[in-house]
């Protein structure tokens, strides 16, 4: 590998464009001269985020901001990267702060950047649970992408729209969005996008009871990811497939995929998604009648969801915990826990207390 700093930066960018963030990270290892240090740290943040290392990416972006001076494009990129990482971690207040900083640096008349910022704003609202606002913001962006026949942009916006519809209760509409998203990504020959459309499709098909479609979607996503560098995607594929297998009553297979997912999320220090795996394992224990083990998993999940301000997860955990408590003869506490689950869901404008299919 060239030790020329310009060559290393170019190699890292090429690897990122080629979907090999692990190689980009290796190209950026070691020190850079002061003139290139800020850009190297920014690219390191991009490489880490693409692999799912959101917290480590935040550290790299923050370090980049301290090194960059007068390089507005890179400064905007670092703030956008921070916002995207924060959004992925559920840190919506931090995401909004960095979006504001990125917008302050944006040049007037830059239509492409304006669209990027508008899309990210919508995704932050989606992450915050304000689905009506997210859907309202996404609609004109989707219309513009359709006019341009930009298949990748269409696929991504439809994916985002599908998620907002799903959690606002429009399951049929979400299902149609994810199917269209997958079609658009395939027309654009966007393999990374195809994986995430399959995730969305697998999730909505599963909760609607289309188990064959759900299982096939997660399996296809897992095959596309293989043993590649997207650790987050691989963890998600295992967790999604485990959810389907659990609903099909294949407890042992489900548990194996949950444990594979857990190991990957643990490497990423992704605490909220680890909590979803804990919750899924708790469901497996509950179905087997292993009530003490189920209770431990649900309590661990609830604590992690609360720490991450993940309202849906808190509601799901409380709801499941109420079932275990009732089964263990603690009916009064179970009733209070059930009521708390409903309050938490309704207070956040969610329908998690109705998700018996989950």
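Sequence proposed for the structure above (358 residues):
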């Amino acid at each position: 590998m060239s030790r020329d700093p310009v060559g290393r930066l170019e190699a890292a960018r090429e690897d990122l464009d080629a979907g090999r963030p692990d190689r980009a990270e290796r190209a950026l290892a070691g020190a850079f001269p002061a003139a290139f240090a800020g850009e190297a740290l920014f690219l390191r943040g991009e490489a880490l985020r693409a692999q799912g290392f959101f917290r480590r990416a935040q550290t790299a972006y923050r370090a980049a901001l301290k090194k960059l001076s007068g390089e507005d494009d890179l400064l905007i990129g670092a703030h956008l990267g921070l916002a995207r990482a924060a959004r992925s971690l559920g840190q919506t207040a931090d995401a909004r702060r960095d979006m504001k900083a990125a917008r302050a640096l944006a040049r007037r008349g830059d239509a492409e950047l304006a669209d990027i910022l508008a899309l990210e704003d919508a995704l932050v609202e989606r992450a915050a649970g304000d689905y009506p606002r997210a859907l309202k913001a996404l609609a004109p962006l989707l219309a513009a992408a359709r006019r341009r026949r930009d298949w990748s942009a269409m696929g991504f916006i439809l994916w985002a729209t599908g998620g907002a519809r799903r959690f606002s209760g429009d399951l049929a509409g979400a299902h149609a969005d994810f199917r269209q998203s997958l079609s658009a990504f395939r027309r654009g020959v966007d393999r990374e996008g195809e994986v995430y459309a399959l995730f969305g499709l697998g999730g909505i098909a599963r909760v609607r009871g289309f188990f064959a479609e759900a299982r096939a979607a997660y399996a296809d996503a897992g095959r596309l990811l293989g043993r590649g560098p997207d650790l987050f995607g691989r963890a998600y594929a295992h967790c999604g497939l485990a959810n389907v297998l659990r609903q099909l009553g294949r407890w042992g297979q489900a548990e194996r995929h949950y444990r594979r997912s857990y190991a990957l999320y643990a490497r990423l220090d992704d605490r909220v998604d680890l909590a979803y795996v804990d919750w899924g394992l708790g469901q497996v224990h509950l179905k087997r009648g292993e009530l003490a083990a189920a209770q431990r998993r649900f309590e661990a999940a609830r604590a992690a969801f609360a720490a991450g301000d993940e309202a849906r997860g808190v509601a799901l955990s409380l709801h499941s915990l109420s079932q275990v408590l009732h089964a263990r003869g603690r009916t009064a506490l179970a009733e209070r826990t059930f009521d708390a689950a409903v309050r938490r869901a309704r207070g956040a404008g969610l329908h998690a207390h109705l998700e018996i299919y989950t």
